[in-house]
Structures are given as structure tokens and as C-alpha cells.
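Form P-L/3: holo structure prediction, ligand zinc ion.
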Amino acid sequence: MPNSTDLSLAIYRIRVAIPVHLYDCFDYKLSAEQYAQAEVGARVAVSFGRQHVTGIIVEKLALGEPIDPRFQLKFITELLDDEAIINPQVLALLKWSAQYYQFPIGEVMQAALPTLLRQGKPYNLLARMWKVLDLHAEEKVKRSVKQQDAYKILKLHPQGTLENILNLSGIETATLKALEKKEIIRRDLEEQNFKAEPVQLAQMPLTPNEDQKKAIQTILKAQKKYQAFLLDGLTGSGKTEVYLQVMHEVLKQGKQVLVLVPEIGLTPQTISRFQSRFHCHIALLHSGLNDTKRFQAWQHAQTGKASIILGTRSAIYTPLPNLGLIVLDEEHDLSFKQQEGFRYHARDVALYRAHLESCPIILGSATPSIESYHLVQQNKMTKLELNQRAGIALMPKMHVIDLKIAKKKHGLSEQLIDEIAKRLEKKEQVLIFLNRRGYAPVLICESCAWQANCPHCDAHFTLHMKPYSHLHCHHCGTINRLPDACPQCNQQTLKPIGMGTAKVEESLNELFPNFPILRVDRDSTSRVGSWQRIYDQIQKSEPTILLGTQMLAKGHHFPYVTLVAILDVDAGLLSVDFRAAERTAQLIVQVSGRSGRGEKKGDVYLQTLRPDHPLLSILLDNDYRAFAKQTLSDRKLALLPPCRYAILIRCESKSQEENQKFLNEMSQLLRQQSEENLIDIWGPIPAPMERKAGRYQAHVVLLSLDRAKMHFYIRQWWLQLLHAKPSQMKVTIDVDPQELN
Ligand code: ADP
Ligand code: ZN
Ligand code: ZN
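OUTPUT (holo model):
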């Protein structure tokens, strides 16, 4: 009998990354012809168990390489692409990501592909797009029901519709061809012309101020090689202008620019700032697009037709033939970190990508992350500061209101109410920030102290009054009816405690009945287009009160807002997470930055029960940098991230004892396997919210000064852990975790 090496001489094989939750790639057989055609980075259809899946070729095995005896070799079903659709740089980036974040390679690869390609749809789908030519052809189609149907649908989509989408809705290709013959519709061939147009300026750049000029010149010196820049510029200091002027130089050389913004930042306003500066093709990549649009944008990026690729987190994995610059705006924003499944941080992936592609990268923020300041300190990143507000706007003045002594009406201090009234009379706008949606965060009984708590979580129910009154758990989604009387003592003494945005809205309506109040939170903006309507209203110079959560804190430009109030800073000051202070500081500075961006100077009011908190005194001087410097040296002393590297293991099951026991055993194993003193193991401890949706959560934090070594030991250990865990237990790994819950 021949041994396996002899056998392998005659067998052509490829190694495929398959979208299953397994840490290996798998080998498949194919014919000599297919082998000759197969390209690394192209898709292939294979069967896996009983599933039919779309994989990506990661390697062509040389003849004679040993065959893995554990698996039975199967033939591929079909090669799906005749050339690579993921270029070598992105393939390397994906492999690195899988390794670094300890996530199955096949699932990581999926992050690089739009849904239609993941489903195995043909790459040249777009070549078959149909558009209406004749808008008055009703007469010509009236004798065929099929043609009538097709015509009706196509008329609804003047930009054109993909043939396969039409096929799915029951319209046959033959019908389309018949309509084409009658010259009623045509195939759109535009999409086949994949060539970038040379960039043209649509608008003159602004004259940069000294800081901007210095930043632009420094970045431009780094073209065609890797260098990371931290653009540390106050809110409204003209960071975007710096991006635009650097981008122009890169685009002029025919290169592509990848711009990443936080999830919520991708508003029509951001897009229009790029569009009004450059005449060039911009591809937009974000989760709000339908599959066809996303595929189209991805393809424009991947072929090089698009010069600017503007997207959210996952756009970092878009293959780009010509990448010349990466810009990541609001780099401190938490939405760059994926918090479930494949938990990657787009900022760190972007840094690695720039390095792989030998191009500069700019991280910009008014409140940079402590991680980035740490990289600056280690000389891994160059800091560029913008120290004045661009144009004539000045930094706002900060005021603290001590809630312990302030006179209050409707939960708002009278001082604040007065100030709001003054602004509105002067026809200015006011922004009120409260990071808590709903009516009230707690409902209690005043007679017996009963509290409305979620039966499945260690959490209070939030009281909502609209569209009907109910109790809602924001952690597991449970909705309960609002009881008429206390379920414990039967008295009618239930009382909401604290306030959410809906409650504040009610109060403001009573206090300021003659002014529009716009509420911006997840409850009020869930309808499509509602955010846009609110935004349009804000851009008019009319007295208005804007009230909202997080959504208002992000880089928006509200030129008529002159007063910002933060109703409850204390929530952030008292959290157990060591990053809470950083997040709170960023939030305060970012929200404050919405004030006084126009010609009038702005004011910021903070309501707190802790006016003496050290964090507040630093921020009162508008000095985020001093705060960050202090925080970084505190973290150094405490050996906390980013001064040590962290990995968080989360464990979830029906029993907390079982979690603790399992994590204890696993920690013990890690201690035995790794070098002494290399990895510090904290825990196991119950998660801050111990019970969530009826399941118990615990975790272990691993910390080390030596990232490479820690990762080396964790890799083996993590696979052992997955193997050893009881089947009903869910365990996840979070490398460089951003939140400890
Ligand atoms: P940031 O991104 O730092 O918050 P923006 O880029 O949005 O700041 O700039 C704030 C405002 O200042 C914008 O209206 C912008 O057009 C304007 N601006 C930026 N740079 C200049 C400049 N050099 N001269 C005049 N106005 C500028
Ligand atoms: Zn009661
Ligand atoms: Zn719950």
C-alpha cells in the first residue's frame, strides 16, 4: 500500500477557509485544470458535513505535501471566481486578525465580503443591471402580463435593478431580453467600466491656520510609507479640513483613501462634506445599506473605481488595490470595537493594515483614547495638535451646578432653567444631554419599598409611558405591563424615581410650551428619516431645545447651539469600570463641543451631586489633555491597560458555581502552562451584572506586559478551554477588551 506522501503526489489540493465556528482551514481535492485556475483569495463552493458553503482559498498546496490523515478529502463543488477577489494585503490582514483575536479564520474571512458574495452569488452580477429606457411604453407591453410586470417593477427603480434580484421576484431573463429587443429597457453597461476618474476639486480648500498647516505638511512627508499620526484637535478646530487637504494630495496620485467614522457619524452631512470638496467617486459602506447597494459599493472599492471609501467599522476589511491613506475619525469612539462575535477593534486593525500597505494613517479626535496617547509616548505614533477653534468660534465656558444645594423644578435646577429661558429668548438653541432613555429608570412603591425589577436580570425595569405605559428591561428586552397597584402591598403608591429623556421632555414641554423640543434617542429616531428631519430643523437658526442621549454627543455640527447642559454626570463618575472616567471625560468634552460652534460663545452646565470630584475640576478648564496625561500615569502605576495587555474571558451558564469552578480550573491550567509571572490572572469574579436574561455571568481578566508571549500561551490554552467546557456553557474571549461587563 502506498503511504500518504506517495498518494499526495497525485492529488491536487487547496486549503479553504470555511464559514463555520472551527479554528482550522480545510483541504479539498480538485482536478488538475481547476487547480491551475484556482487563485488564493478567490471563492470556492464546497460541501462541509451536510452543508453547502462558500469558502475562500487561502493556500494552494504543492503536490507531495503530506495529507492530514484526520480528514477525509472531498472534491470541491465548484470554483466561484476566476481570479482573486481578496487581495494579498487584506488576506494577510484577515489571517492576522484571526490569530490576534483568537477567532475562527473562516468566520473572520466573512467580514471582508458583502453578503451577496458570501452567499456565493456571481461576482459579475453588476454587469447585468437593467434600466428603463422608455418611460411611456405601457401600450407596447399590454399584450404580455409578464412584460407588464417586469416593466412596472423596473419603472419603480429608475437607477436600475440587478438581474438576479429581478429573477428572485419571478421575472425571467427571457422577458427582460424581450423588453430589450423592443428598446423599452436596456442593460446598464456603465458598471463594467471600472476605472477611477482623476480627482477634481469641487470647492477651494480653506486657508489652513498655522496648526493645520503644520499638521498637513508633516503628514504629507510620510507618503508611501507607514507612519501613524494622532491628530489631537479640540472640537471644531478643523480636523476635517486637515483630512481633506491631505486626502487631496493622495487622490491626485491616483490612490485610494479609506475613511472610517463611528457608526452614528456616517450622516448625510459627513458624506456631503467630502462630496462638496471632491469630484470623484465615493463608495459608502455601512450596515444601513441593502445587500445590492453594499455589494455595489464594495465592488467599486475593490476594483479601484472608487477613490474615497467612506465607511464604518467593518469597512476596514475592504480590499483596495491602491490604498494610499487611512483616516479614522473620532478614534476614541467605542463603536470601532465590535462587542460580540468576532470582537475586533477597527482602530488597531487599521494601524496594522496601514503597516501592511505601507501607507500613512491619521487617527483624529478631540478626546483621544488613552491607548493612543500611550502609543505616542512609546514613539509609535506622531502627535499633531490643533489648539484653536477654526474660524472665529471660541471654546465654551464650563459651569458646575451642585444638585445638593440647588433649588429644583421638575428635576432641573432653577439656575439652569433660567439660563435656558435666556437663550431661547435670544433665539438661540439649547442642547440637553441625558444618557438614559425612557421615562424613569426605577419604579418603587412608597409604602413598602418594592421595586420593579426584571425577573431575568439583576436590573431595574425602565418605565416607559409611550406609546403606552409599560416596564421594559433594557438588558434582555423583557416587557411587562405596568401594575395598577403595588404587587407586594396592594397600595396605589407606585412612584417613578429618577428621570429619562421622555420624562425630561415632558418637563420641558411644561416649562417652555412655546418652543419646539426635539428628542433624539433610540426610541424617537427608530423611524427611517426621523433623524434627518431633526437634523434639518437644527440647521435652521430658530430657537429650539434639543434633548437626547449618546446620539447627540458625536461629531455633529450644530452652529446655533450656545448652551449645553449635562443633566447627570454622576452615573459615569461612580462606575466600577476603570475606563469609566475616561469615557465620562470624553463624553463631557464631546457634548460640550457642540456648544458655541458658530459666532457666539457657548456655555456648558454640568449638574452633579459631586461638584468636588477631581475629574470635574480638570475638565472645567477644558483640559482633556491634562486629564489624559494624569490617567495614563495612573494606569502605569496600577499596571492597567494600555500599560499592560488584557484579555477577558467571559463565561455564561445556568449556574454561577459552575462558572466559577470551570474558570478556576482553567486558570490553574494556564498557570501551569505559562511561564511564571508572565500572566497575571484576576478572578474568576461575577460580572458587574451577574444575571442577565436568566443566565449567570462570570469572568477572568488576564494581564501581561509581554503581549506576544501572552498570546502565544493563550492560543493553545483557549482551544483546550473550548474543548473542556460543558456544552450548555458559553465562553467567549475578548482580546483588548473595552468594557469589563
Ligand atoms: P473638527 O473636525 O475638528 O471638529 P471641523 O473640521 O468640523 O472641525 O471644523 C469646524 C468648522 O471650522 C467648520 O465649519 C470648518 O469649515 C471651519 N474651518 C476649518 N478650518 C478652517 C480654516 N482654516 N479657516 C476657516 N474655517 C475653517
Ligand atoms: Zn408596596
Ligand atoms: Zn432583563
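COMMENT: Residues 200-386 form a domain with the Rossmann fold fold (CATH 3.40.50.300).
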